[in-house]
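[step 3/7] fold_predict: job queued, chain A
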Amino acid sequence: MKALKKLSLALGLIMTLAGLPVVVAAFVMSWPARSPQDQQPPDQPDKKKDKKKKKDDSPGAEDSPDNAAGARRAVKRVLSDFQDGFEGHSPRRVTDSLDERFEDFPRFEDAVTQFLERTSEMRMNLRESTTEVKGDHATVIVDAEMIFTDKAKPTQDQRRRERIQFDFVYNPKKGWKIFEITPRQFFES
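[step 4/7] structure written:
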């Protein structure tokens, strides 16, 4: 009986070791073969990655005022970033959506910062009513609702509702930016 056990263990070990090269060969064969055209020298960067970087660094052609649908999407994206800045309590993200020609920029930035510092939780809904793109200017009218909690009164939710007009301008280097908000008091304390 001991001999039978040793024999079966030996056979199992031999089959395992003999089967290993077969498994490795099958694994290597499953890898896709690369042709010389697909291989690039290591010192050359991948062209596909370069295209992505260029697209991310500057506004794309689809965002330009010449493409109305792309411009609408880009404006919507800027508005979404503006909203995310408020909900994330990030004054920097809010002001990144604003153009440098935004009237009284420093005062608005201070007011937004103070407002965000005194609130603890915030939810904002910007429901687009109308969007109009004309050349390098765009106007979006939204029905805005903000629900927030003041740190001084954490048990009471406060609500604001108002129709707001956002005026955008297109800068070829920076893309679409907000250059006017009417009325601004909705976003201030």
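[step 5/7] annotate
The chain is about 40% helix and 30% strand.
The CA atoms of residues 37 and 70 lie 35 Å apart.
exit 0
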